[in-house]
User: What shape does this take?
Amino acid sequence: MEESRDVTIYDIAERMNLATSTISRALKDHPTISDKTIKKVKKVAEEMGFRPNILAAGLRGNSTKIIGVLVSRINRPFISSLISGIEEIAQKAGYSVMITQSHDSYEDEVNLSKALYDSRVCGIICSLAMDTRDTSHFQKFIDKNIPLVFVDRVPKDFDTYRVMIDNYSAGYKATKHLIEQGCRRIAHITGSPYRNTYSERKRGYVDALLEANLTVDEELIIETTLTYEEGETAATTLFDLPNPPDGVFVVNDTAAVGVIQIAKKRSLRIPEDIAIIGFNDDPIASIIDPGLTTISHPAVKMGQTSAKKILNHLKSAKKSADTPKKDRITEVTFLNTEVLVRASSSRKE
Amino acid sequence: MEESRDVTIYDIAERMNLATSTISRALKDHPTISDKTIKKVKKVAEEMGFRPNILAAGLRGNSTKIIGVLVSRINRPFISSLISGIEEIAQKAGYSVMITQSHDSYEDEVNLSKALYDSRVCGIICSLAMDTRDTSHFQKFIDKNIPLVFVDRVPKDFDTYRVMIDNYSAGYKATKHLIEQGCRRIAHITGSPYRNTYSERKRGYVDALLEANLTVDEELIIETTLTYEEGETAATTLFDLPNPPDGVFVVNDTAAVGVIQIAKKRSLRIPEDIAIIGFNDDPIASIIDPGLTTISHPAVKMGQTSAKKILNHLKSAKKSADTPKKDRITEVTFLNTEVLVRASSSRKE
DNA sequence: TAAAAACTTGCAATCGGTTGCGTAAAAATA
DNA sequence: TATTTTTACGCAACCGATTGCAAGTTTTTA
Assistant: This one.
């Protein structure tokens, strides 16, 4: 078992009687190296099985080709699809992805942001933890001109890239759909009001109600952590009301499924007695019986878009290395959402 | 906007009139440094906001504190839970996780294994691509004594850590369960025979049939890529048979759900006409109606276990740096599986 | 043909911890 | 008090690629 040392540019330089600087430049098509030399170097490098030491390059340049990802939890349909999209784009461009999960804890988020920073990630994509209010721990990325993309769960007061859906409009559409199905007393099961995703959807919900001259009953608005169990609990509370709702807009499918199960257990007819709409279009939405009407949004595409923002930023930053434009970036990308009507809400043909 | 340079051990050394070597050693409790000095150095480092440059350390030691992960696809319930478990353990130990997905392509797997190797990961956890037959691209990790863990989809002829379930026994249990429910003609929808996960389950299936004196009908064994759609297709084929099955053992829940949907569409009674058992206990299994009987296995725990194998290996390797034990490692860890009986197969009270 | 311009390549410092080896200082032993 | 041991720390090379600047060579221009 030979401890064969990796071949370095020094080995190539020695073999070719050239300087390491020439090798280094030739390998990345530096314009001051002649085409002949470039070709020869590349050929020899190939022959010798040369693979550049990423760490050495990173140390020198004080940056890696790693995109950091910071999300609440990996094993959620939406998040894992998001990551899948990120990884796909990154991989194609020769970048790697480093994944971390905050478990929806602000404290973890702060620590992980530091860890990613220390890892010299070339960019970071983050979806905020449920209880994050202060986002100053991300400022260091801005200061170092490291591209930062907030995706889905974004802060409202941070000038940087944002990739998201129009939550207000989605909430409005969802609620309006229920109204169109004849619902007059629509409940709303939501998450932390600190997260734009939920506060905005709620805003859309409220506006849709008001527009239809329906009253907004605080009793019908329940704040939860959006688990399946909490969906069940919220549903129980709602159905036990003296004047129960005839429609529910739940901000994620997991909790919405909990609502369906309770409704079924109580022999409520869906959608006749209670129409239900969820959010995300998780796989279960199309599997459950009745099919869950939901708001679909392109998770994979959101990931891809986020990754592209990072890559583009890096590309243009390289070009304009001379022009030290340090303007604050405020680029918000909205991806489309769609009401996916299924049986849980279709009262009409 | 000050381009405040990061503080290095040089800065600390200068401030304290000590050598960088002393700082470096003090920060990691090297025994030759006095406790007084260690405390002082740590205090100053803390004050100055020192954060070690991972790349520099990695370059020198030719290794990082990154665990590489190579899986088929991230956005699958089983895989994302697996990764979640890995990340959790890694994070607690101060390690990072680099994720890549082969998309079930052998070629991608080869390239990604190289990329992870080049990234100087300190260990690698892999679940093989669907069509991987040759695993020699992993040999380089062994040669460099980089711990390699195969998880779930493992090769049969590679001496290294393996974390998996007893697929044979699981397949046997699943089939036997159907037999106990009175099924006499049990179909089997499986994946690539090159993957241990599927070939072993099939072996268990066959043995369970033989043991019960049931005939093994090749017509009832269908090989697929295990998507929802292929589950539907396979079900259609089976149900169209002149002598259709009265039970189906599907090696994943996704395809099993496809089977259920087709059965329902054809108004077959589940489980009276056709009993169905899946594999994985994906979230949909408990949501779908009827509930899908399935084989559960601890995805998160498999991830955790895999990560621990890596960490333990690194720990013991550090201790026995003098004892250059290079024996081939063949450590197989089996995690438990369980038949989760739900409505899709319970014919009896 | 001489001088200027353009093209190629080399030199050497740099990034920031890590570590083998040497040595000064303090403590233990003779 | 002299000598051996132990303790504590410093020196300097090292990991491998990158890059500003210098310098040599060739081509172009006057």
Summary: Residues 6, 8-10, 20-21, 23-25, 52-61 of chain A lie near DNA strand D (CB under 10 Å from a C1'). Chain A has three domains: 9-52, 61-164+299-335, 167-297. Residues 165 and 335 of chain A are 5 Å apart (CA to CA).
